[in-house]
Write a structure and sequence with these properties.
Elements: H1 3-37, H2 50-53, H3 66-85, E1 89-96, E2 100-101, E3 104-105, E4 109-117, E5 123-126, H4 128-131, E6 136-140, E7 146-155, E8 160-164, E9 186-191, E10 200-214, E11 220-227, E12 239-241, E13 247-254, E14 269-273, H5 274-287, E15 293-294, E16 297-302, H6 304-310, E17 317-323, H7 328-332, E18 339-343, E19 346-347, H8 354-358, E20 366-373, E21 376-383, E22 385-386
Antiparallel strand pairs: 1-4, 1-6, 2-3, 4-5, 5-8, 6-7, 7-8, 9-10, 9-12, 10-11, 11-14, 12-13, 13-14, 15-22, 16-17, 17-18, 18-19, 18-20, 20-21
Length: 387
């Protein structure tokens, strides 16, 4: 092979190799451009993380935390609940006329409380102590309109009453399930403190459940809801509301001082549970009264102080001072000076006064009464009447 021919062949090989290199680079560039020109594969669809659903913080500010977002949600729930129930809340005015006494005629007055519409027919539930002793009644709507009302019925033992108006009802509240309440749950009180500040809204929590309160009249208000939502004089009879806008209690009592004269108490309010309010109001609307068991005695409650002073044989009980003729008590053989120490399954003590123990039964029931008669303990059967 001549030298020129050899050089020619070498040059051809170099050109071929260069063409292959250039082709490879060009082909790689085309593949790269093709791949990056195509849309990315679709990602699996899923809910955005919680942080993505929180409100967007303005530029330069701290990001919104979950706690702050939850607070916004609670505040929104409160305003929505108030919008729902507020128009159904009224101020209840109970007017008493003057009374003639040996010194002349006493001046009448007006007691003020709160209430809430529970029916389109104009029925308003409130507290018994708001209307007790009055001769005429009216309700003031949220818009300031005063409308005459009539008393449908009242029950002092539950401290509930129902009054009624004729005419259009602006809104009706619904009862919720008070049996499902839990301590710490947010609640709202709506009412007219002092009678002047209509439809005042306060918020708090359920502090405790199942409280019993001494009325000072020989019986307890039982199963009460304790709340730290601010309740003042004039709030009595107004609703305690959950975040769903349902009435879960009727506000009835506040405690301002402890056992010591210098003890100041704050945030200690109590409400009648909705389960009780609904049952009692239904009875009052249907028959004008609550039918409770009747025994036919007058009695004096006994506690350790009274028992010690009079040297009685029982620390707790009901001392019979009078027996009504032909009553269930008389028919069962109960006598004056007997001491009732147990009714059915309930021994009388500080947690079970006579009335509360008796109200565990209904008219028509035959119940064992355990008595102390002198030095003897006897048992009689009493068939309860209706009263």
């Amino acid at each position: 092979m001549s030298g020129k021919r050899f050089i020619y062949i070498v040059l051809l090989l170099i050109v071929a190799a260069g063409a292959g290199f250039v082709g490879a680079v060009g082909g790689g560039a085309l593949v790269y451009q093709y791949l990056h020109a195509q849309p990315a594969p679709a990602a699996a669809v899923s809910a955005p993380p919680m942080s993505a659903r929180l409100p967007t913080a303005p530029a330069g500010s701290q990001p919104v935390t979950q706690l702050e977002a939850d607070t916004v949600q609670v505040e929104t729930a409160i305003t929505m609940a108030v919008d729902k129930v507020g128009p159904a809340v009224v101020t209840v005015l109970a007017k008493s006329s003057g009374q003639r006494t040996r010194f002349g005629v006493t001046e009448g007055g007006v007691a003020s409380g709160s209430g809430v519409f529970i029916s389109k027919d104009g029925y308003v539930v409130t507290n018994n102590h708001v209307i007790d002793g009055a001769s005429s009644y009216s309700v003031v709507l949220a818009n300031g309109t005063e409308i005459p009302a009539t008393l449908v019925g009242a029950d002092p033992y539950s401290d509930l009453a129902v009054v009624k108006i004729n005419g259009d009802v602006p809104a009706v509240a619904t009862f919720g399930n008070s049996d499902a309440l839990r301590p710490g749950e947010s609640v709202i009180a709506i009412g007219s403190p002092l009678g002047d500040f209509k439809n005042t809204v306060t918020a708090g929590v359920v502090s405790a459940l199942g409280r019993s309160l001494d009325t000072g009249n020989g019986y307890l208000l039982e199963n009460m809801i304790q709340t730290d939502a601010a309740i003042n004089q004039g709030n009595s009879g107004g609703p305690l509301v959950n975040l769903a806008g349902q009435v879960i209690g009727i506000n009835t009592m506040i405690v301002r001082s402890g056992s010591g004269a210098s003890t100041v108490v704050e945030g200690l309010g109590f409400s009648i549970p909705a389960s009780t309010a609904q049952t009692i109001s239904t009875m009052l609307i249907a028959q004008g009264k609550v039918v409770r068991p009747y025994v036919g005695i007058r009695y004096q409650s006994i506690d350790p102080q009274i028992a010690g002073f009079y040297r009685l044989p029982a620390q707790y009980g009901a001392y019979v001072t009078q027996v009504t003729q032909s009553s269930p008590a008389a028919q069962a053989g109960i006598q004056e000076d007997d001491i009732i120490v147990q009714i059915g399954d309930f021994a009388l003590d500080d947690s079970h006064p006579y009335i509360n123990a008796l109200f565990n039964y209904k008219p028509g029931d035959t119940v064992s009464f355990t008595l102390l008669r002198g030095s003897k303990k006897i048992e009689v059967k009493v068939t309860l009447g209706a009263g």
